[in-house]
Amino acid sequence: MQFLFAWFAALLLLPAILPADMNTPAQECVILLHGLGRTSHSMQDIENTLADAGYCVVNHGYPSRQDDIEWLAYDAIIDSLGYCEAQHTVKIHFVTHSLGGVLVRVYLQEQHIENLGRIVMLSPPNQGSEVTDLLRDNVLYQFATGPAGQQLGTGPGDIPRQLRPIPGEIGIIAGDFSSDPWFSPSIPGEDDGKVSVASARLKEMRDFLVLTNGHTFIMQDEAVISQVLYFLRHGLFDHGQRDNAAGAPENSGQGADTELDREPVNEQRP
Q: N or C: which end of the chain has fewer CB within 10 A?
């Protein structure tokens, strides 16, 4: 009888004595941040997939065309962090599209997230976008993108080029299929119609992946969403699965770069 009582007591205490890295998805909160001129609906497919996988997901919209990037970064993130805290989650992840990735970088310049986990960026203009350089003075562009659209250029005075490296395990997915071919001639190298593959990179990223997607709908692609989930679980992308699907040898892909100050990994294509 004493043995049974001790066994039952141990079961009750088990969650308290598990190692800190044995978190279940329900204990982990994923904040989704959409891109410029979009709404939370654009991230709905990712939200559904992550929720089905057991994560606590926050998919709140923000007025991307109404304020500058510095204010948007605070406004878009602070309420979501409060929601995660209210759910008693122990780890905070981010999944972003386009401008959303820049907002996370801006926020982390001055703010500290104690339980920051992994950050997956989809088509982020981390080094700026040549589309902004081209259209900055265009009245229609100014109307469509607002103050934030004026800050996304590639010049040294533009926001993306002024940001310091940030903490967290960062995985970046870039597209190399132009969804806006009329912009591509002004973008050097491979691009997704708005952001070049090279511009998506960060020195501190842990892994990098190039998939055949355009900028506008990359967040709704099933292969992209699958890679997002894989990175949140493992801290790297599933290069082997992608390479095998393309008929490449299993060892042809680059793995994760586990030292943040090392040179970025080479992109791999399907």
A: N
